[in-house]
Design goal:
single chain, 267 residues, alpha+beta, Heat Shock Protein 90, five-stranded mixed sheet, elongated, disordered C terminus
């Protein structure tokens, strides 16, 4: 019934839910024809489908980002180094050779730093070895140095309060929120706080930019990760995330995840 259509049912409290309805003809012993109707709530299925689409879109965006970084920064640097090495081999003046060697050494150093920055973005080693606060501080420093976007951070010591999965989830939510602020807010700074209270670690990212009209049902587009993506990431570790924004009044992203269970940590 209704194949290809978006069907909805209404709960007793008045809320609408997506459903799948199937009809099956059946004959009773009396010979009378009947139809068996089955109504199935597919909210969870649609939620997982939406999340799968978001994960695919996020992976594709990350591939595009890596491709741009490799081409625009590292490939160009390697080509320049190749040219400088050839010029160095043909140089006969000792003073110029020494200056050229110093310049090449400096460019190699800058390229190495860029590769390390990319590695930190993919899997921040600070998160494993020094905790969430240190990993965020390092990420904010990279963003300031590379993009000129400043994150004013207040980071309480919460490194020992989260397990690895929850810490990574919160790190990614903050990373996405800051990236969105940098790309879409129209300002060059944001504020971020990290705090611990009532068994929850909460990260809040706030910018005073142009804001937007949040649409929690919309999949990511033009690089923006919506409320649904952040909410799903937090929900996977037992937390929650909200986005508050309106045109002209900036944007606030607040995500909370539960602290580590001592019994689970000891397993």
């Amino acid at each position: 019934m209704g194949e290809g259509l978006e069907l909805q049912a209404v709960r007793r409290d008045g809320t609408a839910i997506p459903v799948e309805i199937s009809l099956s003809p059946s004959n009773l012993e009396s010979g009378e024809g009947h139809v068996i109707c089955a109504v199935r709530d597919i909210s969870a299925w649609k939620r997982m489908r939406r999340l799968s689409g978001m994960l695919i879109a996020a992976a594709e965006n990350e591939r595009k980002h890596l491709s741009r970084e490799l081409h625009d920064e590292f490939l160009q640097s390697l080509v320049a180094l190749k040219i400088r090495m050839k010029l160095l081999a043909d140089e006969r003046d000792d003073g110029k050779r020494e200056r050229a060697r110093d310049r090449i050494a400096g460019e190699i150093h800058d390229t190495i730093r860029g590769v390390k920055r990319m590695i930190r973005g993919l899997l921040p080693p600070e998160l494993e070895h020094r905790g969430l606060a240190s990993a965020l501080a390092s990420a904010f420093a990279d963003i300031r140095d590379v993009y000129g976007f400043t994150v004013h951070a207040s980071l309480d010591a919460v490194a020992d309060e989260l397990d690895a999965v929850a810490a990574l989830a919160l790190y990614r939510i903050v990373q996405e929120a800051v990236t969105n602020a940098m790309r879409h807010s129209g300002v060059n700074e944001a504020a971020m706080t990290l705090s611990l209270a009532d068994g929850m670690v909460t990260a809040t990212v706030r910018d005073e930019g142009g804001g937007f009209e949040p649409d929690p049902e919309t999949l990511p587009s033009d690089g923006r990760v919506g409320l649904t993506g952040m909410r799903e990431r937090a929900a996977l570790v037992g937390g929650a995330a909200i986005v508050k924004s309106s045109p002209g009044k900036g944007t606030t992203v607040r995500a909370s995840v539960p602290v580590a269970d001592p019994q689970r940590q000891g397993e």
